[in-house]
């Protein structure tokens, strides 16, 4: 009887803890201020939240609108107590991540509960676009070339994205590609591990969903820009067979 009661209490505590973790990471619109104020170009501007766009490990992303101009932006919101501060990401964008194929960064702000990052709004990921559309070989090469331009730019900066994938690439007008997620980015000289010793011991680092990440990162070793090239090649394979070249596919062309 005692063991049964202890078991039930343990299950309840695990469930409560799990719910708390989910609530902590997945922020609701109702928990945000009615108006969000950012200082841009020496002027304080007010924004209202339109809709929820998605969430990641550290926080959630919302579509917001400038009260006066009606211009739309993407706002990343993160609880202050997470291990990775938005201020670190803000400094990366302000000092290093300035490139035509990297999302435009507009500002950083924090209050008593949250940190905020303001970005240009891009409506569709490259993954979603390629999943919905059969692209021509020439256009696909144009897309790939832009991604390689970004990776080469980061190589010169000695920055490693760490988890490069097409879901972290957005599509603008005229097939222009923009990288958006640098939450796991590190400098080659100052690195942090993406997987803990426990993850590696339990084999979590080799789970199917992480195989696009370079082996050296998954195994807790030091990495360089070559790791992002590995990820680029790995994830590109998923899409290349759907690219059209004349009457066949790209795979037929290479054969």
Automatic annotation (TrEMBL):
Residues 47-255 form the Protein kinase domain. InterPro entries: Kinase-like_dom_sf (IPR011009), Prot_kinase_dom (IPR000719). GO terms for cellular component: nucleus. PROSITE patterns: PROTEIN_KINASE_DOM. It comes from the Eukaryota. GO terms for molecular function: ATP binding; protein serine/threonine kinase activity. The keyword Nucleotide-binding applies. Keywords: ATP-binding, Kinase, Nucleotide-binding, Serine/threonine-protein kinase, Transferase. This is Protein kinase domain-containing protein.
